[in-house]
Amino acid sequence: MRRSNRPIAERFNHLLTVMSSQRFLKMQGIGNEVPFFIFSFKPSDTFEMKQLEANLLTHLSLKGVRVLKIDLYDLSIEMLKERGIWEQVLEIEPTVEKSQLLELFEGVLDPKDNLVPAIAAKMAEQPYDILLVTGIGEVYPYIRTHNLLENLQSTAKNAPTVFFFPGSYTPSLEKGFMLNLFDLPSGNNYYRAFDIEHFEV
Question: Mapped to the 3 state alphabet, what secondary structure does the chain carry?
Fold first, then answer.
């Protein structure tokens, strides 16, 4: 499993060092690859990650690094409200199967047609140095990480994008790197993202 066993608090300093470094901000050392970076963490550390996230944003701001944070959960609710179906979702959610909700969300939250354009709109609203994507665990199974990354790569290419991922990013000789949400085995792979903990500054 490709993830540091160090406590989240100990990993904070490395993450801050990397994300505030000129080499990272200028996307050096990654060749012609998409500037996507995975920071994986144990699902049980989700609450602690929220605290780390807040501290990280504060420290980066003090260093003059502008971060655009996209919380997929918040963005999804915003999109559902814009479509006028949020109240409907709240009303039917307790009584319907997840498969029915998935069918309802497939169109509204489709990565290619709607989600990535919504993210692009947020990107156009303000200047930033880093795009930070959070809320990945909260939107599963309605948004799949590998689908998002595949569709986002043509849009988020002018600045580093960091994904806070509750699970593991596992190397595989046969399939590249595997994104295993919640540390569960997955048949989905995404090999064009870097493990940010192995990025040297």
Answer: CCCCCCCHHHHHHHHHHHHCCHHHHCCCCCCCCCCEEEEEECHHHHHHHHHHHHHHHHHHHHCCCCEEEEEHHHHHHHHHHHCCCHHHHHHHHHHCCHHHHHHHHHHHCCHHHHHHHHHHHHHHHCCCCEEEEECCCCCCCCCCHHHHHHHHCCCCCCCCEEEEEEEEEEEECCCEEEEEECCCCCCCECCCCEEHHHCCC
CB 70 within 8 A of CB 133: yes
CB 131 within 8 A of CB 156: yes
pTM above 0.90, yes or no: yes
Rg (CA), the chain: 17
Long-range contacts of 57-61 (CB under 8 A, 24+ apart): 57/132, 59/16, 59/20, 60/16, 60/19, 60/20, 60/130
Q: pLDDT for 18-56, tens place per residue?
A: 999 999 999 999 988 999 999 999 999 999 999 999 999
Q: Does residue 25 contact residue 65 with C-beta atoms inside 8 Å? A: yes
8 Å CB contact between 179 and 145: yes
DSSP β-bridge partners for residue 134: 71
Paired strand residues for 171: 177
Q: Residue 142 is encoded by which pair of tokens?
A: 């309605």
Q: What is the pLDDT of residues 160-187, one digit of tens each?
A: 999 999 998 876 656 567 888 888 877 6
